Amino acid sequence: MKSIFIAILSLSLLYSCTDKKKETTTNKPAQKKVIKTTKPVKEPVVIVDKNGVANINLTTSDAMKFNTKKIVVKAGQKIKLTLSHKGKLDKRVMGHNFVLLKKGTKLSSFASKAAAAKNNDYIPEDDSEVIAHTKMIGGQEKTTIEFEAPATGEYDFICSFPAHFAMMKGKFIVE
Q1: What are the pLDDT digits (tens) for 138-164?
Q2: Could you give the C-alpha distances from 124 to 87, 104, 107, 160, 162, in angstroms and in order?
């Protein structure tokens, strides 16, 4: 009984010591609240310049993913694609590239052929299924290629480093 009395007394003392704010009304204009976010602003992946060239900025890292899974361009448009590897690992361990494949290419069978082409940056000697590709790069490296967008349709893009295609893939949509 004594402990219950002490607990009630402690709570009432604690409550009485807190700040009590009085409600008042004023005729002051409402102030705007500034909300700060810690989320980084995502830069656009495709920026069309004054000459109509689609500048594509694709990034990747040691986490084995591209910064986008969808790229949209116009048929016949000149493409300038820059691939940047923001990671730290060497290309022999965590290399990345961009490979744009022709319609109907089966990703798993292409990836098998690519995995056997180590001496050719994991691009098969018979590259008849490839529209365009970058070289293989490692951490803190960058590469750029230029090509013309293919005909209207949906194409796959991947990283052809062994086993990366399962996570590093996306759609290249040509309107």
Answers
A1: 999 999 999 999 999 999 999 999 999
A2: 25, 17, 13, 10, 12
pTM metric for this prediction? 0.76
**Backbone dihedral region for residue 127 (phi beyond 0: left; psi -120 to 50: alpha; all else: beta):** alpha
How far is it, in rounded angstroms, from Cα 112 to Cα 92? 18
Residue entry with tokens 């290419």:
105
Nearest to residue 46, comparing CAs of 33, 34, 55? 55
Q: Tell the residue number behind the tokens 């900025």, with chain if given.
A: 57
Q: What contacts 133, CB < 8 A, 6 or more positions away? A: 97, 98, 99, 100, 123, 127, 145, 160
Domains and CATH numbers, the chain: 46-174 (2.60.40.420)
Contacts of residue 115, Cβ cutoff 8 Å, sequence gap at least 6: 122, 160, 162, 163
Would you list the DSSP string of 22-34?
PP----PPPPPPP
Spatial separation of the C-alpha atoms in residues 76 and 73, rounded to whole Å? 9
